[in-house]
Known about the structure:
This protein is an alpha/beta fold. It has helices at 14-26, 39-48, 54-59, 71-77, 83-94, 99-104, 131-142, 169-174, 196-206, 210-217, 219-236, 256-282; strands at residues 3-7, 33-37, 108-115, 121-124, 151-153, 156-160, 179-183, 239-242. Strands 1, 2, 3, 4, 5, 6, 7 and 8 form an eight-stranded mixed beta sheet that branches.
Amino acid sequence: MKIGLVLEGGANRGVFTAGAIDFLLEQGVNVDYVIGTSAGACNAMNYLAGQKGRGRDSMILTDKSLNYFGVKTLLKTGHYFDLDWSFREYPNKYFPFHYDTYFHNPAEREYASTNCLTGEAVYFTDRGEDREYLMQIGKASCALPGMSAVIEVDGVPYADGGVADSIPVKRAFEKGCDKVIVIETRRQEFRMKLSKSIKLVAKISGRKYPALQEAMLKRHINYNGTLDFIHEKEAEGTVFSIRPEMQEVSRTETDYHKLMKFYHHGYQQMKQAFPALEKFMTEEK
């Protein structure tokens, strides 16, 4: 069987996923295909590089001067998130990324982003062992509209993958996966709504990228449809989901204790579910 791992985004809600994959790394769990969106892309990279604790340490900062988002960043760069800085300084200086281990991992991998010109999901993968390109497609997956700059890859503008495909589980099946593990960052009862703030950001984005605006305005419909799809596949026995049971942190949460609690919750959720997950991964469909 081909086993896939799908990682949802959510900015600092991604500490839940970091905890879950750290447990998987402790257990030596390998899969055949990995796909992540936004913060899920970052967690996917850490998982493929075998770097237990890197996601936790880079999202739950003890040194606040290393924070890549906030009012100071906004005043300095014009954007709330400075992805150029975080994808340059984090992997190469403050939280060294194990590029060699990553590139030698045989698992197939993709990172979801949104093409600003078409509003459609694009799924990037590595280009040989090009480190700079890897970080560029990572930025493209994380470029949240209204909070960070649009990221260009080969001259095409891209925005956060969560706009077009927040939980790319359907993509995993399209790529031939027989069974898929999904790590979500929202509780099971969550349903997305079209908020006033999203309408405003979509309107502003639409001045330059009308297709991106359209994608943002229908994101909640697609997201909720994906949740329904996941639940159907869970009932069929081809999807195994790990999700929070406690109140989620906000995507821009900076409180050390709240973030650490959510990280440990992810770790414990995976640990508790692990016997069932092992059975899921080994039994035929």
